[in-house]
Amino acid sequence: MADFTIDVKNKPLGRVATEIAGLLQGKNSPNYEPRKVGGNRVVVKNIGDIKITGNKDVQKIYYRHSGKPGHLKKEKYEDLFDKTPEKVLINAVKGMLPRNKLRNERLKCLIIEQTNDR
Predict the structure, then answer these.
(1) 4-41 residue pLDDT tens
(2) What helix, strand, coil percent values describe the chain, rounded to 5?
(3) Would you list the domain boundaries of the chain?
């Protein structure tokens, strides 16, 4: 229903992700219903300048598994951020959305614009 533009330059990753998750669910609207997608589109700018606090850039590890025995993949935050910084934000927002069948539909409303390259 509405378009929101968020500039994430020098903002902490977690704070931005919670704000985006709330907007994608439509919690800012008086017509909010948990069983509906929400209808808001969120455009994120300056993803290359997002801030992360503490030692998470060295210590944080993302795991993924193919489902086959012995196929657990690990990737450090700094390596993933150097390759594709938008995946870091998508993973954070995805973790803050409710785990139901609407999660993928809500994530489709998240648009990340690359303005700054690292």
Answers:
(1) 999 999 999 999 999 999 999 999 999 999 999 988 99
(2) 35, 20, 40
(3) 3-52+85-112
CATH code for the part of the protein at 3-52+85-112 = 3.90.1180.10
> Long-range contacts for 54-60 (Cβ within 8 Å, ≥24 apart)?
57/81
3-state secondary structure 37-72: CCCCEEEEECHHHCECCCCHHHHCEEEEECCCCCCE
Amino acid at 58: V
User: Checking DSSP bridges between strand 61-65 and strand 72-76, what pairing results, if any?
Assistant: antiparallel
Residues sharing a CB contact under 8 Å with residue 80, sequence separation 6 or more, in sequence order: 62, 87, 88
Note the pLDDT tens digit of each residue in 42-98: 999 999 999 999 999 999 999 999 999 999 999 999 999 999 999 999 999 999 999
